[in-house]
Amino acid sequence: MSETFSSAAWSRTLPIFEAIRTMPFVTALADGTLPLDRFRHFIIQDSHYLIAFARALALAAAKAPEAAEIVQFSRAAHDSVVVERALHDDYFVRFGIAPEDFTQTPLSPVCDHYVNFLVAKGFAEPYPVVLAATLPCFWIYAEVGRDILARAVRPNPYDAWIDTYAGEEFHDVVRAAIAATDRAAAQADPLTLVAMHAAYRRACQLEWMFWDSAWRLADWPVG
Protein backbone atom coordinates (compact mmCIF):
# COMPACT_ATOMS: atom_id res chain seq x y z
CA MET A 1 0.00 0.00 0.00
CA SER A 2 1.42 3.39 -0.99
CA GLU A 3 2.09 6.07 1.59
CA THR A 4 -0.69 8.59 2.09
CA PHE A 5 -0.15 12.29 1.56
CA SER A 6 -0.75 13.03 5.22
CA SER A 7 1.79 10.46 6.40
CA ALA A 8 4.43 11.76 4.00
CA ALA A 9 3.68 15.42 4.80
CA TRP A 10 3.86 14.84 8.55
CA SER A 11 7.17 12.97 8.25
CA ARG A 12 8.71 15.65 6.03
CA THR A 13 7.76 18.45 8.39
CA LEU A 14 8.29 16.70 11.72
CA PRO A 15 11.26 18.97 12.60
CA ILE A 16 8.93 21.97 12.30
CA PHE A 17 6.39 20.38 14.63
CA GLU A 18 9.15 19.55 17.12
CA ALA A 19 10.29 23.17 16.95
CA ILE A 20 6.73 24.30 17.70
CA ARG A 21 6.22 21.78 20.50
CA THR A 22 9.36 22.91 22.30
CA MET A 23 9.28 26.65 21.61
CA PRO A 24 9.14 29.09 24.55
CA PHE A 25 5.50 30.12 24.02
CA VAL A 26 4.22 26.53 24.08
CA THR A 27 6.44 25.52 26.98
CA ALA A 28 5.23 28.47 29.06
CA LEU A 29 1.62 27.75 28.08
CA ALA A 30 2.00 24.18 29.34
CA ASP A 31 3.56 25.09 32.66
CA GLY A 32 1.19 28.00 33.27
CA THR A 33 3.88 30.69 33.31
CA LEU A 34 3.03 32.31 29.98
CA PRO A 35 2.84 36.07 30.59
CA LEU A 36 -0.65 37.44 30.09
CA ASP A 37 0.45 40.04 27.55
CA ARG A 38 1.79 37.31 25.30
CA PHE A 39 -1.42 35.27 25.53
CA ARG A 40 -3.49 38.37 24.82
CA HIS A 41 -1.36 39.06 21.74
CA PHE A 42 -1.90 35.47 20.62
CA ILE A 43 -5.68 35.49 21.16
CA ILE A 44 -6.22 38.83 19.40
CA GLN A 45 -4.21 37.73 16.39
CA ASP A 46 -5.89 34.31 16.41
CA SER A 47 -9.26 36.03 16.27
CA HIS A 48 -8.16 37.97 13.19
CA TYR A 49 -6.72 34.80 11.69
CA LEU A 50 -9.83 32.66 12.16
CA ILE A 51 -11.93 34.88 9.91
CA ALA A 52 -9.46 34.39 7.05
CA PHE A 53 -9.19 30.69 7.83
CA ALA A 54 -12.98 30.47 7.52
CA ARG A 55 -12.80 32.18 4.11
CA ALA A 56 -10.20 29.68 2.92
CA LEU A 57 -12.34 26.77 4.13
CA ALA A 58 -15.37 28.25 2.37
CA LEU A 59 -13.34 28.42 -0.83
CA ALA A 60 -12.35 24.78 -0.33
CA ALA A 61 -16.03 23.92 0.03
CA ALA A 62 -16.82 25.78 -3.21
CA LYS A 63 -14.17 23.74 -5.04
CA ALA A 64 -14.99 20.36 -3.46
CA PRO A 65 -15.92 17.69 -6.03
CA GLU A 66 -18.29 15.76 -3.73
CA ALA A 67 -21.39 16.93 -1.90
CA ALA A 68 -20.19 15.44 1.39
CA GLU A 69 -17.03 17.54 1.28
CA ILE A 70 -18.98 20.67 0.39
CA VAL A 71 -20.90 20.09 3.62
CA GLN A 72 -17.73 19.21 5.57
CA PHE A 73 -15.80 22.34 4.70
CA SER A 74 -18.81 24.64 4.78
CA ARG A 75 -19.40 23.41 8.31
CA ALA A 76 -15.72 23.87 9.16
CA ALA A 77 -15.87 27.46 7.87
CA HIS A 78 -18.98 28.05 9.98
CA ASP A 79 -17.31 26.56 13.05
CA SER A 80 -14.24 28.78 12.60
CA VAL A 81 -16.44 31.85 12.75
CA VAL A 82 -18.26 30.43 15.78
CA VAL A 83 -14.90 29.91 17.53
CA GLU A 84 -13.85 33.45 16.61
CA ARG A 85 -17.05 34.78 18.18
CA ALA A 86 -16.46 32.62 21.25
CA LEU A 87 -13.05 34.21 21.71
CA HIS A 88 -14.78 37.57 22.09
CA ASP A 89 -17.45 36.23 24.42
CA ASP A 90 -15.18 34.11 26.60
CA TYR A 91 -11.42 34.54 26.33
CA PHE A 92 -11.57 38.28 25.67
CA VAL A 93 -13.67 38.79 28.80
CA ARG A 94 -11.65 36.31 30.86
CA PHE A 95 -8.32 37.91 30.00
CA GLY A 96 -9.40 41.54 30.07
CA ILE A 97 -9.44 42.25 26.33
CA ALA A 98 -11.90 45.04 25.55
CA PRO A 99 -13.69 45.16 22.17
CA GLU A 100 -11.65 48.22 21.19
CA ASP A 101 -8.43 46.35 22.01
CA PHE A 102 -9.34 43.96 19.21
CA THR A 103 -10.71 46.45 16.70
CA GLN A 104 -7.78 48.83 17.16
CA THR A 105 -5.11 46.12 16.93
CA PRO A 106 -4.06 45.50 13.33
CA LEU A 107 -2.93 42.14 12.05
CA SER A 108 0.67 41.47 13.03
CA PRO A 109 3.18 40.99 10.19
CA VAL A 110 3.05 37.20 10.53
CA CYS A 111 -0.74 37.06 10.83
CA ASP A 112 -1.05 39.30 7.79
CA HIS A 113 1.28 37.01 5.82
CA TYR A 114 -0.52 33.87 6.94
CA VAL A 115 -4.05 35.06 6.16
CA ASN A 116 -3.02 36.34 2.75
CA PHE A 117 -1.30 33.02 2.04
CA LEU A 118 -4.47 31.09 2.90
CA VAL A 119 -6.87 33.28 0.97
CA ALA A 120 -4.56 33.38 -2.06
CA LYS A 121 -4.33 29.59 -2.07
CA GLY A 122 -8.08 29.38 -1.69
CA PHE A 123 -8.71 31.55 -4.73
CA ALA A 124 -5.84 30.55 -7.01
CA GLU A 125 -5.12 26.87 -6.38
CA PRO A 126 -7.05 23.67 -7.06
CA TYR A 127 -8.99 21.92 -4.33
CA PRO A 128 -6.23 19.50 -3.21
CA VAL A 129 -3.74 22.35 -2.70
CA VAL A 130 -6.26 24.40 -0.73
CA LEU A 131 -6.77 21.44 1.61
CA ALA A 132 -3.02 20.99 2.02
CA ALA A 133 -2.61 24.68 2.87
CA THR A 134 -5.34 24.61 5.54
CA LEU A 135 -4.50 21.23 7.07
CA PRO A 136 -1.57 22.31 9.32
CA CYS A 137 -3.77 24.72 11.27
CA PHE A 138 -6.10 21.85 12.16
CA TRP A 139 -3.46 19.20 12.71
CA ILE A 140 -0.73 21.14 14.50
CA TYR A 141 -3.19 22.72 16.93
CA ALA A 142 -4.60 19.29 17.75
CA GLU A 143 -1.20 17.72 18.31
CA VAL A 144 0.11 20.69 20.28
CA GLY A 145 -3.03 20.62 22.42
CA ARG A 146 -2.62 16.91 23.11
CA ASP A 147 1.10 17.31 23.83
CA ILE A 148 0.50 20.22 26.21
CA LEU A 149 -2.26 18.31 28.01
CA ALA A 150 0.15 15.44 28.70
CA ARG A 151 2.63 17.73 30.46
CA ALA A 152 0.54 20.69 31.61
CA VAL A 153 0.69 21.98 35.15
CA ARG A 154 -2.87 21.93 36.48
CA PRO A 155 -4.63 24.07 37.49
CA ASN A 156 -3.40 26.32 34.73
CA PRO A 157 -4.65 29.81 33.81
CA TYR A 158 -4.94 28.53 30.25
CA ASP A 159 -6.83 25.31 31.08
CA ALA A 160 -9.81 26.17 28.87
CA TRP A 161 -7.62 26.71 25.80
CA ILE A 162 -5.68 23.49 26.44
CA ASP A 163 -8.84 21.44 26.93
CA THR A 164 -10.42 22.78 23.73
CA TYR A 165 -7.59 21.73 21.43
CA ALA A 166 -6.77 18.51 23.27
CA GLY A 167 -10.42 17.46 23.27
CA GLU A 168 -11.84 14.59 21.26
CA GLU A 169 -14.41 16.78 19.50
CA PHE A 170 -11.68 18.86 17.89
CA HIS A 171 -9.66 15.76 17.04
CA ASP A 172 -12.68 14.33 15.19
CA VAL A 173 -12.67 17.42 12.97
CA VAL A 174 -8.93 17.03 12.39
CA ARG A 175 -9.22 13.38 11.43
CA ALA A 176 -11.94 14.28 8.91
CA ALA A 177 -9.74 17.02 7.39
CA ILE A 178 -6.81 14.60 7.10
CA ALA A 179 -9.01 11.98 5.42
CA ALA A 180 -10.41 14.50 2.93
CA THR A 181 -6.90 15.72 2.08
CA ASP A 182 -5.70 12.15 1.54
CA ARG A 183 -8.65 11.43 -0.76
CA ALA A 184 -7.89 14.53 -2.80
CA ALA A 185 -4.19 13.66 -2.98
CA ALA A 186 -4.98 10.13 -4.18
CA GLN A 187 -6.65 11.65 -7.26
CA ALA A 188 -4.04 14.36 -7.85
CA ASP A 189 -1.46 14.42 -10.63
CA PRO A 190 2.26 14.58 -9.76
CA LEU A 191 2.55 18.35 -10.19
CA THR A 192 -0.42 18.94 -7.93
CA LEU A 193 1.12 16.66 -5.30
CA VAL A 194 4.30 18.73 -5.40
CA ALA A 195 2.23 21.89 -4.92
CA MET A 196 0.34 20.24 -2.04
CA HIS A 197 3.56 19.42 -0.20
CA ALA A 198 4.90 22.94 -0.78
CA ALA A 199 1.69 24.51 0.54
CA TYR A 200 1.61 22.20 3.55
CA ARG A 201 5.24 22.95 4.46
CA ARG A 202 4.78 26.70 4.12
CA ALA A 203 1.71 26.60 6.34
CA CYS A 204 3.69 24.65 8.95
CA GLN A 205 6.41 27.29 8.84
CA LEU A 206 3.80 30.00 9.28
CA GLU A 207 2.35 28.15 12.27
CA TRP A 208 5.77 28.31 13.96
CA MET A 209 6.08 31.97 13.05
CA PHE A 210 2.62 32.73 14.44
CA TRP A 211 3.44 31.25 17.88
CA ASP A 212 6.88 32.89 17.88
CA SER A 213 5.35 36.23 16.94
CA ALA A 214 3.12 36.10 20.02
CA TRP A 215 6.10 35.26 22.24
CA ARG A 216 8.00 38.27 20.89
CA LEU A 217 4.92 40.54 20.94
CA ALA A 218 5.83 41.27 17.34
CA ASP A 219 4.47 44.37 15.66
CA TRP A 220 5.21 46.29 12.49
CA PRO A 221 8.72 47.77 12.74
CA VAL A 222 7.63 51.01 11.08
CA GLY A 223 4.29 52.76 11.28
From TrEMBL:
Domain Thiaminase-2/PQQC: 24-216
EC number of the protein: 3.5.99.2
Gene responsible for this protein: tenA
PANTHER family linked: BIFUNCTIONAL TH2 PROTEIN, SI:CH1073-67J19.1-RELATED
UniProt organism field: Ancylobacter crimeensis
Described function: Catalyzes an amino-pyrimidine hydrolysis reaction at the C5' of the pyrimidine moiety of thiamine compounds, a reaction that is part of a thiamine salvage pathway.
Family of the protein in this entry: Belongs to the TenA family.
Biological or metabolic pathway of the protein: Cofactor biosynthesis; thiamine diphosphate biosynthesis
Database matches in NCBIfam families: salvage_TenA
Reactions this protein catalyses: 4-amino-5-aminomethyl-2-methylpyrimidine + H2O = 4-amino-5-hydroxymethyl-2-methylpyrimidine + NH4(+); thiamine + H2O = 5-(2-hydroxyethyl)-4-methylthiazole + 4-amino-5-hydroxymethyl-2-methylpyrimidine + H(+)
Keywords on record: Hydrolase, Thiamine biosynthesis
Protein name: Aminopyrimidine aminohydrolase
InterPro entries xrefs: Haem_Oase-like_multi-hlx, Thiaminase-2/PQQC, Thiaminase_II, Thiamine_Salvage_TenA
Name of the top EC class for this enzyme: hydrolase
